[in-house]
Each structure stands twice: as structure tokens, then as C-alpha cells.
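Sharing a chain and its predicted structure for anyone who wants a worked example. Both blocks are below, sequence first, C-alpha cells second.
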Amino acid sequence: MSERKYDRPPYLKAIHLPGPTTSDTEQACGEFVSHIRDGLAESRYVFGDILPTVPEVRDQYGIQEEDIHGAIQELRRTGLLQLHDEYRDTYFLDPGPEHAVGEPQEDIVERVKRLEALYLDLAARVEAIDPLSH
């Protein structure tokens, strides 16, 4: 008996990929894979981020769907993508344990502190622009 999967809900937002720098479809397909690998390596994308749909990638990169499926299979073989258990044709990024182990806990704490500081700065700016917004 096959497992029932659901359509991807609209609130499940996908990562933004930069798109190709070439009109050559073979190179564009390679760039698609590189953008995901590089984005994970540079922490622009993290575990659990959702890949755009195949039609979205096709439209953005100008590559055929069978080439996209081949690229997805390559990324899955290397452990960078996993098929979502609940949603049809939905893949999430999974940099694997070798990436997670190399990241010290202090880096996460520092990132959270930096984000909190940015939030407080933005809140202060909004207050300065519209003091009655509270």
C-alpha cells in the first residue's frame, strides 16, 4: 500500500536561489547544484530549508525537468537533500552530520545574539519613525 502524500501547503516557503549566470542549459544545471552546495557551505541555507518546486527551478534556470530531477538525485545521493515525508515532490536541505558536527555551539549563540541586537535596533528605528505604533 502506497503512502499518501499531500500537496505542499502555500505557507511552506522555499529558499531563494540566485538563478543562472549563463544561457547554456548544461552549465545552468551545474550552477543549480553549486548554488545549493555553496549556500549550505556558507550557511545561507540551513537544515530544513525547502527547495523550490521543479517547475519553479525549471522557470528560473531554464533547464528541462528531467535534468532537474537528475540534479536532485545527485544532491540526494550526496546527502544534501531529503524527500519530505509528508508533502509530494517536496525536498528539504540536509547538510548531513559532518556539517553539523563542525559548528561549535558558541557560533549559534553568537548568531542568536547578533539577531537579537538587529531586532532591537529595528524596533528602535520603527519607534523613532512612528512612536504611536505600540
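Comments welcome. The longest strand covers residues 81-83.
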